[in-house]
């Protein structure tokens, strides 16, 4: 599911959305076969698992039902903020030795924010129900996080991400199903404007 770039929802509609941090990472679909491992696919379907051995077998991925999750891989800077430059450096590495050498210098994290399948398809569930299922999986480890969302007011969420050094927020309609491959106003990308 893809976001549409747009303005922040106004006071008359802001309560219809939850607000999440805009990560500017590498989008991946994470397949959890239920044996504690993870397989990472890019939006084009390429298997990128081998490039991220630090995300292969995570303590939080305990045996259980098969799951398919949506999220982003990020690389952080010295202050713990997502760095597009550091992520690009890591993404450019393909040789196993180069990847192994980068594990300490260019570590990555997997930010998971939606669930498409949990023993059965969850696409038609509303955003709020899918987030509840995702939270219930308790996947948080040093390498994997399920970041929280903010309720309205939208402006407060936007200001919080500005204060914390992020690029903006994504507004996600509380009632929206997950629409694979669709760009829709149910997800709105709101970026901070540069200072004037």
UniProtKB/TrEMBL annotation:
Signal peptide: none annotated. The keyword Ribosomal protein does not apply. The keyword Ligase applies. Keywords: Ligase. Residues 101-191 form the ATP-dependent DNA ligase family profile domain. Pfam families: DNA_ligase_A_M (PF01068). CDD domains: Adenylation_DNA_ligase_LigD_LigC (cd07906). InterPro entries: ATP-dep_DNA_ligase, DNA_ligase_ATP-dep_cent. Belongs to the ATP-dependent DNA ligase family. PANTHER family: DNA LIGASE 1, DNA LIGASE 1/3 FAMILY MEMBER. This is ATP-dependent DNA ligase family profile domain-containing protein. The lineage of its organism: Bacteria, Bacillati, Actinomycetota, Actinomycetes, Kitasatosporales.
């Amino acid at each position: 599911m893809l976001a549409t770039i747009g303005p922040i929802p106004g006071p008359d509609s802001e309560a219809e959305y939850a607000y999440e941090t805009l990560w500017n990472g590498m989008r991946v679909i994470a397949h959890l076969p239920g044996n504690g491992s993870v397989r990472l696919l890019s939006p084009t379907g390429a298997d990128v698992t081998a490039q991220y051995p630090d995300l292969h077998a995570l303590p939080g991925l305990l045996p259980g039902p098969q799951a398919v999750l949506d999220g982003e891989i990020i690389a952080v800077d010295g202050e713990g903020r997502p760095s597009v430059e550091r992520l690009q450096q890591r993404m450019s590495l393909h040789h196993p030795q180069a990847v192994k050498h980068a594990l300490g210098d260019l570590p990555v994290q997997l930010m998971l924010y939606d669930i498409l399948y949990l023993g059965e398809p969850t696409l038609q569930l509303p955003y709020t129900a899918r987030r509840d299922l995702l939270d219930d999986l308790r996947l948080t480890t040093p390498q994997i996080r399920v970041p929280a969302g903010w309720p309205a007011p939208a402006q407060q969420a936007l200001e919080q991400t500005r204060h914390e050094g992020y690029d903006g927020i994504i507004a996600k309609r509380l009632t929206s199903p997950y629409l694979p491959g669709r760009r829709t106003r149910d997800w709105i990308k709101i970026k901070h404007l540069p200072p004037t």
